[in-house]
Give the backbone structure.
Amino acid sequence: MHDLLVNGKHLAIPDDWSQETLIVVLRDYLGLVGTKHGCGQGSCGTCTILMNGKAVKSCQLTIEDAADASLLTIEGLSAEGAPLHPLQLAWLDEAVSQCGFCQSGQIMQALALLNRTPDPEREDIIKWMDGNLCRCGSQPRIMRAILRAATSMRTGRTAQ
């Protein structure tokens, strides 16, 4: 058995899942389907989660890679019944999602940015989000949502 720390919970993963990619374990074994499976090659960013606070592509990692790490998926941003995370609120307020497929990866990538740079400039956001593809053209709304969430997170106010 392998132990993974996912969204603050220690979870036992059977040995026969040890060679699967982390995205497969998260979705198919743990039922955490908020993280989407995109290209499978680490190019699109759809499967982005946080590992020890840093954005990683879960399609490129195994359980072995995640041993002794703290993993955060989109499901872990806000506890059940708790208020939404400022990024989630900003995404709603800016009506970011069109098809929605890439959005969990976009939000997790944005969270890693805001954890690192609480008051990013537009250029910081463009560079940081470059590895997360959106085919719907939501990038202007993503930009506004990240800026809105950054302000909210710095001031402690919820997005409006």
